[in-house]
Specification:
This is Putative cyclase. The structure is a single chain. Helix 10 links the parallel strand 11 and strand 12. Helix content is about 25%, strand content about 15%. It contains eleven helices and 15 strands.
């Protein structure tokens, strides 16, 4: 019987508690730790990752940050609002107040930090009032922000070897020649991850300190059909049962091309993002969401190399529990 089949859909509390106990990394790196699984990315790991760059090809994995983004207002999450402060019009009219004909343009953006391609920080999710490493949630995140595990504490850490597991291409259906995608509600189990590794070959092996990037193909579908319910609606994603797989493989971080990383609807009768509740506060795992993996996935399929150097530094907003970024893959 598969792990997914063994889930008791009526008992999320019990399943979450059991998985949290099995997968906990509390005190693994000491009581004062603020970096969680990013401790697994060592300098030697980064040195080896840099050697993966052979062609010098680069791929931005960020969705556009603009007003046509996926957000629909859930919990006051809106799309970015970009406004010009100075434009070429003012420069032509000579009303900017600069000497000798100098002109310029300036702009401003207002947005929730998790409205497009982003990392969930360790202060983003709590489990029964406890934050990462067992700290009381109220002592970590206050109205002043996350004063302990704010995203700025890992501003230089999210660089290393990454592996793309293109589950959409390996197990899904190719629609409109876009390389394969999974249907909404498809729960990616450990068996699916292992099958994808086997299908893709040796460059897909996932080990300690690696950043796991999972393509479902859902974002590619939005490019063809529009956003629809991408933000918060039904989606393919990781099964709750992958918590142990992620822990056993000691991945440093995981990112997907979906809004919420895990399968939606969730696998329990009454639950909201139960995998988040295990991996962030208990495992100390950083979670990336809403990444654009289409161009990278096509390139990986073409050259049969699924490992690459990933530079994925979050914007170091002091005290933030998550942050936008422009992740760049180098091959």
């Amino acid at each position: 019987m598969s792990a997914a089949a063994a889930l008791d859909r009526s008992d999320p509390e019990g399943a979450i508690a059991a998985a949290a106990a099995r997968c906990s990394n509390w005190d693994r790196w000491g009581p004062d730790d603020v970096k969680g699984t990013l401790n697994l990315i060592t300098d030697e790991h980064r040195r080896r990752a840099a050697a993966l760059v052979r062609r010098g090809a680069t791929f931005s994995l960020a969705q556009p940050f603009d007003m046509d983004g996926p957000q629909r207002g859930w919990r006051r999450r809106t799309n970015p609002v970009h406004t010009m402060l100075d434009t070429g019009t003012e420069a032509e009219l000579g009303i900017q107040g600069f000497p000798h004909g100098l002109g310029g343009a300036d702009d401003v953006i207002a947005m929730p930090l998790q409205c497009s391609t982003q990392w969930d920080g360790l202060g983003h999710i709590f489990d029964h009032g406890r934050a990462w490493n067992g700290r009381p949630a109220g002592q970590v995140v206050t109205s002043a922000g996350d004063g302990v595990t704010g995203i700025e504490t890992v501003a230089a850490d999210l660089v290393g070897r990454a592996v793309l597991l293109d589950v959409g291409r390996a197990l899904g259906v190719d629609v409109a020649g876009q390389g394969g995608e999974l249907p909404d509600g498809f729960a990616i189990t450990p068996e699916h991850l292992d099958a994808t590794v086997e299908a893709q070959g040796p460059t897909s092996s996932v080990g300690p300190g690696d950043i796991l990037v999972v393509r479902t193909g859902q974002y590619g579908r939005t490019l063809r059909e529009g956003w629809g319910e991408y933000a918060g609606g039904p989606a393919p994603g990781l099964s709750f049962t992958t918590a142990d797989w992620l822990h056993e493989h000691d991945v440093a971080a995981v990112a997907t091309d979906t809004w919420g990383f895990e399968v939606r609807p969730n696998e329990f009768d009454v639950a909201f993002q139960p995998l988040h509740q295990v991996v962030i506060p208990n495992m100390g795992l950083f979670v990336g969401e809403m990444w654009d993996l289409e161009e990278l996935a096509a390139d990986c399929a073409a050259d049969r190399r699924y490992e690459f150097l990933l530079v994925a530094a979050p914007l170091p907003v002091t005290g933030a529990v998550g942050a936008p970024l422009n992740p760049v893959a180098l091959k």
